[in-house]
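User: two proteins, same treatment. go.

Assistant:
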Amino acid sequence: MARGDKSKYTDKQERKADHIAEGYEKRGVSEKEAERRAWATVNKDDGGGRKEGGSGRGKRTGNPAAHKGGKSGAAASANRPAAERSASAKKAAGTRASHEHRSSH
């Protein structure tokens, strides 16, 4: 099978890839790159095409890519010292207060 051949993917996998690509495009990623990332995500989730003749058809997937978001960000803030987090929170509160003050006029 040639590289890039999508004949072994189910309709559901194709819809999933389209939906993912759409999300990337909304965030300003080029159409070609969005498409590439979308299929990479489907492959990560499902282990490739799920139609007959390939390996792994019908196996349930845990959709790992869908559960990945936010983990690295949370870890980064958790590793910061408490004083740094506190200073950051105070700064954010100050910014919110000043924005609130500005928008109420």
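Protein 2:
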Amino acid sequence: MESESARMSSAAEAKFRIDAPNSRPRAVKVIALDAPSERVVKELARDAWQGATFLTASAFAGAAAGGAAAAARFSLGGWLNDLAGRTKNLVEEIAAADLVVMVASAGENAAAAAIIGEACNLRHVMTTALILGTAGSSDEALSKLLAQLRPHAMMLVISSADEYIRDMLTALRA
């Protein structure tokens, strides 16, 4: 009697095989929300990734921290950039994404997370927030950042080492 394994390997069964990978690469948008995380994101962008696009929103954090005068001069359309400094449209970037990963640093302003999270929610795009630099930050600074990110991220990861971010992006198939 022929085993199940031998029967499945036969030429008669070969016509039922799928000769394609079992999943396509994800379209991941990695967005730095502040200047310290922008440094880490730019370093990560040098590596080879399957389908990741790296962006910065640190200009938004600077305008939000500058008070009403800075906010009045700030252009809402010009705060999301690629790493070459070209302005990107948030809605178009999210429409092309399967996953948006926001990277923030403890003790910094992550106000852009609200806009990014809302846009992702409207398009049903999964969001993840990765928090950097927690080893040297106070509990108060971390709590403040968590309060800004938690409503806008389906998954929140707190990292004490920047190297962990690379591992997380790999696990997320970026």
